[in-house]
Amino acid sequence: MNEDLAQLITLLVPQKxxxxxxxxxxxxxxxxxxxxxxxxxxxxxxxMQESDQDMLIHSCHAYFLRMGKRDQNVQFDVQLIRQGxxxxxxxxxxxxxxxxxxxxxxxxxxxxxxxxFQKPMPDVTPPEELEDEMLxxxxxxxxxxxxxxxxxxxxxxxxxxGPMDWFKEEPASAKTxxxxxxxxxxxxxxxxxxxxxxxxxxxxxCAAALRPHGxxxxxxxxxxxxxxxxxxxxxxxxxxxxxxxxxEGLWSGGSRGLNQGTIYTRDGRHIxxxxxxxxxxxxxxxPDHTNRS
Length: 293
Description:
alpha+beta, twelve-stranded antiparallel β-sheet, Porin, 12 strands, 16% helix, 37% strand
């Protein structure tokens, strides 16, 4: 395993400092704030450490309450809400300066057999025929001005099915998709693979609802942030093998956008789902190509 991936894993697993209390440092990202996927993954990890080993996480529902400061450690307060025979619930509050910056409820379940159904995976271009998104970012003049953005995603291999310039304002479909995995092999720990997927689940999702407006989060006069996040785990998988992440913007209005994600293994198993609403506050005159309805 290369050093970048090993460091990412270390950062995403908070260390216990007291009963039900954990602490973690931050993944480099932008200049000031914390990447939302980091806080999601660290909360999942802390809740796992406070849960029975025979319970598997199947969902988390979260709110981003304040901007996380990258130069301060984050503490995670884990509370037991319910411990049943089949299901258990934990609440995790992420804190800086003794103020909550993020809160999530996480549900765990004992493995059970049951009725099974899923929508089929869409027919998409295989990852081998697509360009590594991180390599394209590496040579982009605007990305070179944000070196920590590259460091954040260096351990990942991301290949977008619709090659796009995240810094070019051009209207596009609200539905898009990307292949994603870690560049190196991970240990055979199912919980770790879910922690990594929690981290990946926030990657680019909030931008889907911006695409019809021809805007990106690098657009002048646009202020964007994740407001809430839902993540459901449906089946086992490996985060070091190709996963297809279909993303779709469902609605935008009131300075917010709603986005949906569906995650498949390469052989077409639907292993996770996401929902996220993000802030899309635009100041100044709207571009001519922006949908004003």
